[in-house]
Design a protein that fits this description.
Length: about 300
């Protein structure tokens, strides 16, 4: 695959990357940035997201040193939905798609829900060079599921609710919700135009997101006993002001359980460090590359 060079631009409706067919029949949209001979890094977006999130600041920053593969999880962005929406299924098809493009062991980075997918990938396979977790859930939590998610997850009621939400939600409310995701930092200038947050409430996508968020609680609980098997280099970053995925519920317990994890707590940062503390995230990827090279030798060397 030829390398992509030059600045990234906001994408409206046109697909920039490649649709990769894998052995299971799934189709995954993958965008590639940087030089193809550079060490590979895979970026996995969070809930309600797409490549439009990761391609705003993080992919351009990493593309100076890495070959960056930015994926759309199944059912989001330009990747068609799969019947199996579990973390395990997502990790399998993303791994298969990346292996189709690049056989080298990659650093896999996931943000928020994408961090849970990245964790599952690491638990399934030993072909990762390293793992980088940004604002990632890692444990069960006590609170129940929001009424909106429970409603959207209902087969009939959820269909009607998602259609009405998509048709009636005003732009000011979308802007308010986006601001809440970034709080206490401001939404970066140009991000809303690039990310196109109204795409997040596209009815089928909105319903899938609700189902996955509800399923995540039990999936994380089942994942915790498997952490003892994680020995690869892991770098995790978590904002101390993150109220969406609080660090005392997720990052701190994970760090206590996994000896190979190095936790960086970002003072006063909320849920979106890859946009508001981008250099700290890039530094974490650099550390992951260095640690992978020291323990694995050829993990990140060009093929």
């Amino acid at each position: 695959m030829p390398a992509r060079r030059g600045p990234l631009r906001a994408i409206k409706t046109r697909r920039r990357g490649d649709l990769v067919n894998n052995s299971s029949g799934a189709v995954i949209h993958v965008e590639t940035y940087g030089e193809t001979v550079a060490p590979p890094v895979v970026l996995i977006h969070g809930a309600s997201g797409s490549t439009y999130d990761m391609s705003f600041r993080l992919a351009p920053a990493l593309a100076q040193e890495f070959c960056v593969y930015v994926v759309d999880r199944p059912g989001f962005g330009h990747s068609p939905r799969m019947k199996d929406e579990s973390l395990a299924a997502q990790a399998r098809v993303l791994r298969d798609a990346i292996q189709t493009l690049d056989s080298r062991n990659a650093i896999v980075l996931g943000q928020s829900y994408g961090g849970a997918v990245a964790l599952e990938w690491a638990l399934q396979s030993d072909d990762l060079a390293a793992l980088v977790l940004i604002s990632s859930p890692s444990h069960d939590w006590e609170a129940g599921h929001p009424l909106l998610h429970r409603t959207l997850a209902e087969p009939v009621l959820g269909w009607w609710a998602s259609e009405l939400i998509h048709a009636l939600t005003p732009q000011w409310l979308i802007a308010k919700q986006l601001a809440e995701v970034f709080a206490p930092q401001d939404v970066p200038e140009g991000y809303a135009d690039h990310f196109q947050p109204r795409n997040s409430i596209h009815p089928p996508r909105h319903r899938q997101n609700a189902r996955q968020r509800i399923a995540l609680k039990a999936e994380m609980a089942a994942m915790v006993p498997r952490y003892a098997g994680l020995t690869l280099p892991i770098e995790s970053l978590h904002g101390t002001a993150d109220v969406i995925v609080p660090d005392h519920i997720h990052a701190l317990p994970f760090d206590a359980k996994v000896a190979s994890n190095v936790l960086t707590r970002l003072d006063g940062i909320g849920h979106m460090p890859h946009h508001v503390a981008t250099e700290a995230v890039v530094e974490a990827v650099r550390r992951a590359r260095s640690r992978a090279t020291s323990v694995g030798g050829a993990h990140c060397n060009p093929a």
